[in-house]
Description:
By secondary structure, this protein is of the alpha+beta class. The chain folds into three domains: 1-115 and 287-426, no CATH class; 116-184 and 277-286, Roll (Pdz3 Domain); 191-269, PDZ domain (Pdz3 Domain), CATH 2.30.42. The chain has helices spanning 2-27, 85-114, 129-132, 152-161, 212-216, 235-245, 290-317, 328-342, 347-370, 377-390, 396-424, and strands at 32-48, 51-66, 116-117, 121-124, 140-144, 147-148, 167-173, 176-182, 185-193, 196-198, 204-207, 223-227, 230-231, 250-256, 259-265, 268-276, 279-281, 285-286. The chain has a four-stranded antiparallel β-sheet. A four-stranded antiparallel β-sheet has the order 13-12-14-15. α2 (85-114) packs across α7.
Amino acid sequence: MNILIALLVLSVIVIIHEFGHFIVAKANGIGVTEFSLGMGPTILHWKKGETLYSIRLLLIGGYCMMVGQDGEDEDAPNSFGSKSVWARISAIAAGPIFNFLLAFVLGVILIANAGYQKPVVYQVEEGSAAYEAGLRSGDVIKKINGGVVTFAKDYSLQELAFPSERMTIVYERDGVRYTTVVSPIYYEREYYRVGISVSEDGTIASVAEDGPGGQAGLLVGDQITMVNSIPVQNADEIVDKINANGGNLLTLQVLRGEDSLVVSMTPKVTLVKGFDDGLTVYAPREEAGPLETIAMGFHEVRYNIQMVLASLRMLFQGDASVNDLSGPVGVVSMIGDVVEESKSDGLYYVVLNLLSMALMLSANLGVMNLLPLPALDGGRLVFLFIEAITRKKVPKEKEGLVHLVGIVLLMLLMVYVTAKDILSLF
């Protein structure tokens, strides 16, 4: 069931993307030969007008095939190439834009139902860089290095993706705005991870199947009662004991139903580098009015776009690797995990968490498709903008060769990532 739900979520995101291409192409008089959901063998199809609508076996993609888009039938009056360059640009750009629109709608629904967290300073460690700069509990962060901060998670994103030796922070206290400069302290710390997350009462909330805990047999719902034969009562005690254990062999005693089990594993050692400012930004969720909800919907899209761009920057700078990427199999697995972890909270929270996941994936798809890479929408837009500037079309054979190379490279990357995702399931 979880797999079906995950495929449904992915299918909606893809169909919205392709519908963007479809509706804008039609509006510009560009014919569409086929509108497909999924890839591989056709399992259902019907024709209306000039367009063949099809549903294919593998619901991991889709396409909107426009007349003459790849060079054939260019002389047809409704062909892609017969239209103005700006009509073609709008048809290609519409897919990612519709993904951003979907993300916005989902953001509004989430804010309307779950509210949002203001970027309020929850705690300032005495003697820290933030404390010395004058920040105190209750201050509201407004900007960091010129970037707007709307949610508490905006601050976390800045800390994770844009570490800096100097942070210019604009904050508000008692209705008055102040500006200060925080100079965080650089650190390198070893963290010991077993690939699980734990609820406050010590119950395992999630398990990474390729992590030490997952490989040792830990399951969601297990309750940790002892760490290295020492009784523990809550999540904080569990985390402290795991960190104190270091990279040595770790023994956890867990309750699984009425059974008590002892599981052993060796934590993974992760070296984390960054800047410590001594600041914790957190606030309870609060409701937003109708207009504020719409505004917050835009900010949700902005946040998710920034998160994708930050992840790409980390990838190119070596702070992340190709092994951190996930393909369709990995995404389906993640959505399934979200459903599984939310079940105990009820259907309402399952739906909200799915909407949040769909928002992130839709924004991700929009950004990735706009990257100026061959075979992607962004790569096609590069050639169209060159045409708009030079007023000359790039020769089809040259553009086709570039896209062909891009498709081959993307397929190789997809095969690698998919194989990695499949192996991580076992």
